[in-house]
């Protein structure tokens, strides 16, 4: 067993895992844990295979409900010395088997339940407005989002409710399937930087940014219409106009964040996390609903120090 896993698995962790793989030469590898454990397992297996080590099967068993890593062709590895997170993408990174067992998450504390659940919601909403979204990813993303809105507040209060935990576990996997095909966007691009520089938990970073990024993305007409459709589906009468539906969605997200005890973006980041703009990862840009050729718009969300994301909180 390789258990030398830390939150946000590092290059060093992966290297140690590869060394153990070479020593043990297993035919089956099981990634058991939250997103960090599964991402580490996926990276270790993939790099070992590139080095000529045959691995027949990679199994992912999530013990949190949020990352969706058990069904995605992606993982994130960090370099703590540089303060950078590296998202890796390759079809071979997708596990061969995923076991979705809600009994494994009943003991997850409320705070982690909240943060991971909002990570799943972020996956769903970003896939929802991606330019690469399809009817299939829409179905996955919309179902995942609906499950999170209904089940997450209950899962926080009643963690031992298997039915609710099952809904959240399913939502996480559905959202993972959606973004694995449609891609992610600005929310994750910024969250990865926050996590890399300040070691802020990934789900927490996404939750802090979610409402601000939705508002920002809605400046693009196509994204605004898709957000509004989501609001109309769940939070207001069918006859509601686009603006009313969009406001209903924002209100629902803000209400959920309050139920999860997520602080405001401005309050959390203005002093504690002074953030300096630098280039966002190019892997994310083609999938943003906002034009990738508008860096000044993105920069407006990343003012340094006291003005950090000021435009998103006015």
UniProtKB/TrEMBL annotation:
Residues 113-263 form the Fe-containing alcohol dehydrogenase-like C-terminal domain. Gene3D superfamilies: 3.40.50.1970, Dehydroquinate synthase-like - alpha domain (1.20.1090.10). The keyword Nucleotidyltransferase does not apply. Its cofactor is Fe cation. Residues 1-102 form the Alcohol dehydrogenase iron-type/glycerol dehydrogenase GldA domain. It comes from the Bacteria. Keywords: Oxidoreductase. SUPFAM superfamilies: Dehydroquinate synthase-like. Transmembrane segments: none annotated. The keyword Oxidoreductase applies. Pfam families: ADH_Fe_C (PF25137), Fe-ADH (PF00465). GO terms for molecular function: alcohol dehydrogenase (NAD+) activity; metal ion binding. Belongs to the iron-containing alcohol dehydrogenase family. PANTHER family: ALCOHOL DEHYDROGENASE (PTHR11496), HYDROXYACID-OXOACID TRANSHYDROGENASE, MITOCHONDRIAL (PTHR11496:SF83). This is Propanediol utilization propanol dehydrogenase pduQ. The gene is pduQ.
